[in-house]
Specification:
Blueprint: E1 3-5, H1 8-14, H2 23-32, E2 37-38, E3 40-43, H3 44-53, H4 55-64, E4 71-75, H5 85-105, E5 109-113, H6 133-136, H7 147-167, E6 171-175, H8 185-195, E7 200-202, E8 204-205, H9 206-211, H10 216-222, E9 229-232, H11 252-261, E10 267-270, H12 282-301
Parallel strand pairs: 1-2, 1-10, 3-4, 4-5, 5-6, 6-7, 8-9, 9-10
Helix pairs in contact: 2-4, 3-5, 5-7, 10-11, 11-12
Length: about 300
């Protein structure tokens, strides 16, 4: 099983969002770290347009460093917002641009966070990897919110996005995190049933799921047909953090035993770091995580 390098490695080194114009240098860094499969990420309108316009140069760099991009991240926090028709069309147009770029790179899927909670967000609120409970605790639901109307519009939007992804032969992975509507197994199942698109997938993130007390083993069993991409990192259970596996409280023997039980054939990415996680040497953390993960893949998942 080929291990991927999640884009959190680059985010850990250069902040969020990292400079998109340095994408070639980022590819080189991840390749020199020892990865041949890696994530790239287009965060918002300008970055999506930049990578689309420079996709040939980026693909040349991927070829030069013998790298592939199995999953391409297309980050559009406003995709699930209650937008006017024209703004929604623009958002879906940017999503399609991201899908075109993903297909050009040879990706099998695109990934974004789940839809944000329908709150009144300040117009100057920065785009973040995820919004913590503290960051959204002072925000309120719009007085005009009609849940049925909102829900029908939201699921229709994501049905359209899934259809766009399918047009390019891509799965659409939703990443669970604090502050989104699909932060747990139950919430994703509820949402996916309403969207009713076969290519809508769940990007299981072990750290984020553990933090919200989602049973990882049960999540794997319940979502085995909806999971083909896993982010691996550890967590203490006390706060948002992405620790090297084995440095937190996750029961990894149970996790990998269930992966074996469900005959998991998807991909796994090392997703360690971030500004919320204190790691003195990020390169060492990734090397050690790969070694740790390879041993478990060999023991649990590789045929004898």
């Amino acid at each position: 099983m080929e291990i991927s390098c999640a884009y959190l490695y680059i985010i850990s080194r250069y902040g969020y969002p990292p400079p998109v114009q340095d994408t070639i240098a980022h590819i080189k860094e991840m390749a020199e770290l020892g990865f041949s499969a890696l994530e790239l990420e287009a965060i918002g309108k300008k970055n999506i347009e930049y990578l689309f316009e420079n996709k040939e140069v980026v693909k040349d760099a991927l070829t030069q460093y013998s790298c592939s991009v199995p999953v391409f991240c297309v980050v559009l926090p406003r995709l699930g917002a209650d937008l006017a028709e024209g703004e929604q069309a623009e958002c879906l147009g940017l999503f399609e641009m991201g899908c075109q770029t993903a297909r050009f790179f040879g990706a099998k899927g695109v990934l974004d966070n789940g839809p944000l909670l329908p709150l009144d967000y300040p117009s100057d609120m920065p785009v973040m990897r995820h919004y913590s409970g503290a960051q959204v605790s002072g925000l309120h639901l719009p007085i005009s919110l009609n849940w049925d109307t909102y829900w029908n519009k939201l699921t229709k939007t994501y049905r359209s996005a899934c259809a766009i992804a399918a047009k390019y032969g891509l799965d659409y992975h939703l990443h669970p995190c604090e502050g989104c509507l699909t932060a747990t197994t139950d919430s994703f199942l509820y949402f996916s049933q309403a969207v009713n698109a076969p290519n809508l997938m769940f990007n299981l993130d072990t750290s984020n799921q553990f933090l919200v007390r989602d049973n990882l083993s049960l999540s794997l069993i319940r979502l085995k047909d909806r999971i083909s991409y896993i982010h691996i990192s550890d967590n203490s259970g006390q706060k948002t953090e992405h620790l090297p596996p084995g440095k937190g409280q996750i029961d990894w023997d149970a996790f990998f035993s269930v992966l074996k039980e469900i005959s998991y054939k998807g991909r796994i990415a090392i997703d360690v770091g971030g500004s919320e996680t204190v790691i003195e040497n990020i390169e060492k953390a990734y090397h050690e995580s790969v070694s740790w993960l390879n041993k478990r893949i060999e023991y649990y998942l590789e045929p004898a």
